[in-house]
Specification:
573 residues, 1% strand, single chain, mainly alpha
Length: 573
Amino acid sequence: MQERMDNEERGYWRWSKSDFFPEESFQSFGSYRAALSRTCSRFKNRLVSRSDDENERFELKKQSEHEMKRCLTWWDLVWFGFGSVIGAGIFVLTGQEAHEQAGPAIVLSYVVSGLSAMLSVFCYTEFAVEIPVAGGSFAYLRIELGDFAAFITAGNILLESIVGTAAVARAWTSYFATLLNRSPNALRIKTDLSSGFNLLDPIAVVVIAASTTIASISTRKTSLLNWIASAINTLVIFFVIIAGFIHADTSNLTPFLPYGPEGVFRAAAVVYFAYGGFDSIATMAEETKNPSRDIPIGLLGSMSIITVIYCLMALSLSMMQKYTYIDPNAAYSVAFQSVGMKWGKYLVALGALKGMTTVLLVGALGQARYVTHIARTHMIPPIFALVHPKTGTPINANLLVSIPSALIAFFSGLDVLASLLSISTLFIFTMMPIALLVRRYYVRQVTPRFHLLKLIICLLFVVASSMGTSAYWGMQLKGSWIGYTITVPFWFLGTLGIVFFVPQQRTPKVWGVPLVPWIPCLSIATNIFLMGSLGAMAFVRFGVCTLAMLLYYFLLGLHATFDMAHQQIVPRS
């Protein structure tokens, strides 16, 4: 009671040094220098340190000072699934990848990425039911793989959140221009900057600001608004599919594989972004009334329907217009115009705008909850963990994502953002099934060391063989299958090793992934394979971002989390 009264006296809006850096390591230059001198020993400590379910669910929540409101049901989560996913990828990236990478075989790209996404959904669902907290994959990895692995994931979550929001906001402007019967870039400001950064987008900034404001006011009201907008968008989707098949020309499907199988997988790696929003549902667990029932329905139900919708929409686009004529920026609107349905392009553009608006709304909710839980651990300043006492929402966390997103959206083109976003998403989704296998087969102070060693060896076989398969595919040695006869059997060897030689140590209490370890191991393989299908520049950008993350970690994050774990915190004034 006294703690709550103190929090109310301090108020929500405060910006003192102790709110940003309350840890002992940052109280003076001398203490910071002493902390830096112990970097190696602290890193060893955090590398092997792991959290637990109780700490993530109860202790860390105290850092937010106020509770989030439990106001969501399975119905809300299903529509959050629709709102967070449909609109971003199908309306934004389908045309781009069909035109440049896959041709009519873009439908196969959606099948491949949809299969991989469903495997990841299974893993997320088990974790979200067992550990219903706002941190999503970050919290799950902190428990199973430790503090350092969680930090790398946290950095990629923030990168995914910021870049993803910027990409959708840029696409929103393109469709708004089409709705006004103008070219997709007509509302952007042309400059002499380098290609990919030379079209400034002030409208994208306004859209991000509006969605952030709405998400900060109320979770329940945002859910209602998302439900209405998603329902309207669903009607538009049915129109696109039905009208697309009515005006279909099967000759547009020839050649079906103009860029070869390589193009299908390169496109699949990029359109995987279209499925990335589902992880937002897992972050809503803290605000869900009955997580054990509602989350499986929300995640598995929405994603199953969405995968079918994506494939049908991609096929209808490919049959309406030759892939060489598909507009990369506003594919569906221009396609309907090409078959004489000029009025149809306005309806499609309006539906796309509604879809992308809900993506931004639900994204703002999910991203802020990721940030909130990351801040609870002090990996970023704990002021971003605060929940507003009246709205029950983490407004500071919303601002942390929206401000850099707006700056990136103002300058960067969609093609620059998409590949960086996909590799970040795929990295996170690769870590999740690894964490699930660790959860099922290893329990601290229970599992014998010998069994742990066997699990590690088997996982190394699975990961290394998956990387080998992806690398061999990337070498593009046409007609040569020798490499696969080595890498694929090694994957089976690693998976079978877990089946026969590593006993399960834990059984899910409510809902669990079926066919363990096959589904998690297949998820690892597909995610790594799709990651390897991305271009070299995506890895260069990913590497640069990772180096920046590590620099931050060793200068600030490591010492803040060490102090937090050892309770070396100066009380906030």
